Amino acid sequence: MHFSPSRLVIGIAIFIAISFLYTVNTISARDPTSVFFNPRKGYAPRYSATRREQAQNFIAAYNPANVVKAGEQKKRKLCVGIPSFKREGAQYLPDAVGSLLEGLTPEERQEIYFIVFLPHSNPELHPAYHQAWLAGLTDQVVTYGFGMDRMQYIRDMEVRDKFDEKGLFDYGYLMDKCVEQFTPYIALFEDDTVAMDGWYHRTLAAIHEAEQQAALHHAQPDFLYLRLFYTEEFLGWNAEDWSTYLFNSLAIALVPTLILLALRRTHPTTALSLALTTRRTFATMYAVLALLILVYFALGRITVHPLPTGVHLMPQFGCCSQAFVFPNAKASELVAYFKERHVGYMDVLTEDFANERQELRFAVTPSLVQHVGRRSSKGDDYGPMSKWGMSVAEKIWSFGFERFDWVKLRREHEVVARLRREGAEGGERRG
């Protein structure tokens, strides 16, 4: 068959077009930083729907005879705390508790001290307060333990809907309860979240990696927090970095110019050199190059430059307060800081604390937790940040979380558990 350059060009064009359409429909459509983002696809609960079903089945099958709780104090590695408010409409607490416990091996469960905090002056208002599974599955159900004067202060905040005051007070109160357990680390989750199958062993691995990075790359003995959840919506082409984007675009544009000038200089009289260095060729080439650069940015930062899998620094643009892990000592310092500031939102004040003290902030990718709530506890369901007919709370979403495959996660968890058992048995034999 006779070779035809035109056929080659057509073939390359078709390949690029197919690749572009595939990227747009399968990746960029779920990338909130892309102009091709499709909210119907991006916010579709794929894995989270499966995980919620697993959590609900776990709670429904609650049997006191089969429950494993925290082991002796010296073997505990993590205190898990969840503050849970009564919400109008759907109640998410069973899904949160179920997803954190479902699939855990007995050994893993014994390393966790599990607290649920019901921050109501009258805890009986909470739908789960009298349900047997709550006290049966957790290690401690915490309610306010104050005298009359302090309780009046709590009731006053409830009546006045002081979200920025009471929310901070409650978060510090729960964090303090976990600090008292003396576990090396504290993980706090909001009650409208679900955790992936295997969240615990991945969290321990991420903590170890964060410790290593803090020591080896930053010469610091610890870090402030490890973020188990963030939304990619704020990790796009941020205006603060416009100069970097411009410099990189100009650098890329300069490369073909240098190549063609070098070609003209080294082979000035060849037909190819003369054809490629005409004004028309330059104009066409840069028109195409400009289009490709625009397409690159249009595809979205998460599509073309995704965050690497694993643990990495996230000192800014990390949102929100759905799931954090704190070293115990840092948690104590944060509790004191919250008391000092008195009013404010936990996530904002945590960033203030970090900026003031130049603390390290890490995140794990992909997120190990998804936010499934549909109403904000701060009362701003529809505001400047809402769009696509969605509330502010609905848009707090981990797009990477939904790409998990529950079958692969279950197999991974089983392999990790088996290797752990074999390691423990080998240690006992050597002992």
From TrEMBL:
InterPro entries on file: PGAP4 (IPR029675)
Single GO MF annotation: glycosyltransferase activity
Alphabetical UniProt keywords: Membrane, Transmembrane, Transmembrane helix
Transmembrane regions listed in the UniProt entry: 242-263, 283-299
Domain of life: Eukaryota
GO cellular component: Golgi membrane
Coiled-coil features, chain-numbered ranges: none
The keyword Transmembrane belongs to this UniProt entry's keyword annotation: yes
Protein's name in the database: Integral membrane protein-like protein
One GO-annotated biological process of the protein: GPI anchor biosynthetic process
